[in-house]
Amino acid sequence: MASAEGRRHSHDLVPLAALISREMKNEKLEKPTVRYGCASQSKKGEDFFLIKTDCQRVPGNPSSAYSVFAVFDGHNGNAAAIYSREHLLNHIISAMPRGLGREDWLQALPRALVAGFVKTDKEFQRRGETSGTTATFVIVDGWTVTVACVGDSRCILDAQGGAVSNLTVDHRLEDNVEERERVTASGGEVGRLSIFGGAEIGPLRCWPGGLCLSRSIGDMDVGEFIVPVPHVKQVKLSNVGGRLIIASDGIWDALSSDMAAKSCRGVPAELAARQVVKEALRTRGLKDDTTCIVVDIIPPDNSIQLAPPPKKQNKLRALLFRSKSKGSGSKLSKKLSAVGIVEELFEEGSAMLAERLGTDESVGKSTSGLFVCAVCQVDLAPSEGISVHAGSIFSTSTKPWQGPFLCGDCRNKKDAMEGKRPSGVKVA
């Protein structure tokens, strides 16, 4: 598999000059300024973060730059959080088709995020370590923000004008009815901790293992119905910009989304993260690792503009929200418009790989004519690939010979996540 992995980039054949020319035609001349701040307080040493502001869709072309911000909140040790910080971005990028212009790149990003999360989980579990981690992964490209999450770390958007909305979904069994139903349908049990005398205490947990979350990276000892398939949301901000607050549950157990946003309004991003952490510790004390990243997306004609204190909003204005794709049933987007329009480009939270990877036959096919696994990107001989839709029941119109395709190893993982075989049983 390792040698096949090394051959997967053989289809990077679009000339650099052509890509740069395409970018120059498609890019708007004015892009927002991105500024950020980060702060943390450690109690268990299991929170980690990633900040990378020099990524480029087209290597060597500064106009194709984008930024990545991520928070990883580990549990049962820090190994999964460290591994995800070091490998998740590369796994996402390796799942992106080559030679795409900006708009096509953004449209392909949600699928690549799913593949990258699943590959990171699969590769980490091979190490035999039992720790796990949440992951909230944010890509800022111009005015477009794409967020993928598993677990209960959170990303919120504080739009100009004071409207605050969540760009993530919390995968806590206590709060998420859909996830409880999915876990039990896949073979897990959901219940509280039983103590002597039959009393039940604490939050709802998944058994075996006793994890409070229904999605994470790692956690090989708690059953593969605890899945790494992320909820993904992509929005386009209006040209007045906005502020992102990305934080671990050490913040959100102490502060609501509105409280966190209000605690740092009018403060530059570099100081705002420290202000949010300070407010969380003042409210609850240091009971958990507490990490916060604040990202300001600022119009280019006013690079020092700060979000003003909220004013009374016109209710009609708050309803100006357009959607380009079907939602996943959540109600997160209702407050997203404050000034102008925040446009939803994509949202999906299904845990089914067949639904998340789609039916695009061009995905996972190299220019050499060979196919690659849609998750781990290894080359597949014509007789090796198994359609992600083989045996799928989510759509009667799906044809099992359609791509994308999975290698045998990734197909086994898909089956385990959907409860089609016992966790940990390897199929030859």
Automatic annotation (TrEMBL):
It catalyses: O-phospho-L-threonyl-[protein] + H2O = L-threonyl-[protein] + phosphate; O-phospho-L-seryl-[protein] + H2O = L-seryl-[protein] + phosphate. Pfam families: PP2C (PF00481). GO terms for molecular function: metal ion binding; protein serine/threonine phosphatase activity. Keywords: Hydrolase, Magnesium, Manganese, Metal-binding, Protein phosphatase. Residues 28-297 form the PPM-type phosphatase domain. It is an enzyme of class 3 (hydrolase). Its EC number is 3.1.3.16. It comes from the Eukaryota. Its cofactor is Mg(2+); Mn(2+). PANTHER family: PROTEIN PHOSPHATASE. Belongs to the PP2C family. This is protein-serine/threonine phosphatase.
